[in-house]
Amino acid sequence: MEPLLLELQQRGHHLTVVSSFPQKTPLENYTDIDFSSQLPPPTSTFTLETIRNKMPNYLKTVIFFIEYHIGLSEEVLKSQRVLDLVGEKFDLVIGEIFGDDTLTYISHKMKVPYIGWVTSTPLPWIVFHSDIPDNPAYIPNFFVSLCSDMTLFQRIYNAVSLYYAKVMYHILSEIPSQKIAEKVFKEKLPSMRDINRKTSLILVNSHFSLSKSRPFPPNYVEVGGIHIKKPKSLPKDIQEFLDDANNGAVLFSFGSIVRLSSLPPPTIQKFLNVISNMPQRFIMKYEEELPDAPTNVMYMKWLPQSDILAHPNVRAFVSHGGQASTMEAVYFAKPLVAVPFFGDQYHNANNVVCRGAAILLDIDNFSQADFLRALSTVLNDSWYIENMRRLSHQFRDRPMTPLQTAVYWTEYVIRHQGAPHLRPASVNVPLYQYLLLDVIAVLAVWLASVFLVLYWLIRFTFYMRTPITDRSS
Fold first, then answer.
1. CA dist., res. 223 & res. 450, Å (int)
2. How are beta strands 297-300 and 358-360 bridged, if at all?
């Protein structure tokens, strides 16, 4: 979401940014409150062992997402550097919606509008901010790998997992968030649910062409791909490596968090055995030395991923299915071999699989032949190539760029003092009203009364027509 901040700064807004990603060069009207030493970014820190220990299944993944994030938020909120901001004058607070919403209390204390941004597709508990329909009958939730056309048992699993996540969020996030904020501010505060209902706008890193088509209220704006910039010149060694790839090239990266080098040696060897026999060149994000790297492989600890995908000789992408990586693959029309590890990666990858532009592999259960087959297919099968081109065109075809859209609606909220008219009325409606339980009850009583009256009228009519002698008997 950094492009939004930089564009707002360019347009004359004064920004104070609390993050672990300070600007390398100081900018005018842009003040960094740097948490990078206190809360260093988790870049290339997750190993496969970490993932298996912390997120071995869906149930624990939800809990890990929430508890990990609430710990970070508490660390930020109790910092004096952040508390000092509460007394200053601001027009708007923008914050992340992820595993918890503790920091939303800052906007409440400042008495200014709040915009939330979501760097993934909608999480199960985002409904608590803006009452978006999330019917599990046709909308797969964040943590599951399903297409919209679900079987009965898939719908059961989708529904149970959705409501499980919401309940866990309430228990592990909403209640503790309020307690943390009350401890920090030393006063009784409204519930987290009441604070979240006042969210003016939500910017979400999704797009209906790639995610599922679903209904959204006006204060929910999709800006998927906002991070994708105009391609920059590649470093000389990478440029030459790709320019000379006469048979095409493949990008192999598992993103900024998971360390490819942490995979078990037999798994890495499976990848390398296939790659060494392919005619294409491979450029790989690998965090350690790789002495047995095939001659057709270039590896580095960090890669300009988006700029590499823009190169015309890159024909496919072996990815973990992260949201940013998936969108970059779609934007530049590169078919995917997706190898997800945790969280929404399965969901993201499956969105492309359902559109016939990717093949999914299970990191715990794939063979060398499976990888060879998947890679050869996305490289050579015109069906996958054309589907990805079609999807890319749909993803790019918009009236405004994602950045222009985000800037417009951010300034709209400022211009209209929080724009409360964007929020659906349903956010303040009790559940029984939302589900029309009171209406159903009244109608049920009315219908029951009508049928009861008819029953007694009919019975009375038959009674009156019965001869008196028969009545007595």
1. 53
2. unpaired
Residue 164 carries which side chain, given as an amino acid letter?
Y
Q: Are 211 and 351 in contact (CB under 8 A)?
A: yes
CA 190 to chain centre: 27
3-class secondary-structure state, position 375: helix
Query: Alpha helix (H) ranges present in 24-99?
Result: 48-54, 58-77, 80-83
Question: What is the number of residues in the chain?
Answer: 473
Long-range pairs of 60-67 with CB within 8 A, sequence gap ≥ 24: 61/143, 61/342, 61/343, 62/143, 62/164, 62/165, 62/168, 62/169, 63/168, 63/172, 65/98, 65/99, 65/343, 66/99, 66/100, 66/168, 66/169, 66/172, 66/173, 67/99, 67/172
- Label residue 472 by pLDDT band (50, 70, 90): low
Question: How much is the pLDDT for 471?
Answer: 57
pLDDT in tens, 338-357: 999 988 899 999 999 999 99
Residues whose CB falls within 8 Å of the CB of residue 53, separated by 6 or more in sequence, listed in order: none
* 58-77 helix and 175-185 helix, angle to the nearest 10 degrees: 10
Beta bridge partners of 46: 258
Instruction: Of 118, 121, 87, 120, give the one whose Cα is nearest residue 196.
Output: 118
User: Exposure of 24 by Cβ count < 10 A (0-12 exposed, 13-18 middle, 19+ buried)?
Assistant: exposed
pLDDT of residue 359: 97
- Number of helical (H) and strand (E) elements in the chain, helices listed first: 19, 12
Contact residues for 178 (Cβ-Cβ < 8 A; gap 6+): 189, 191, 192
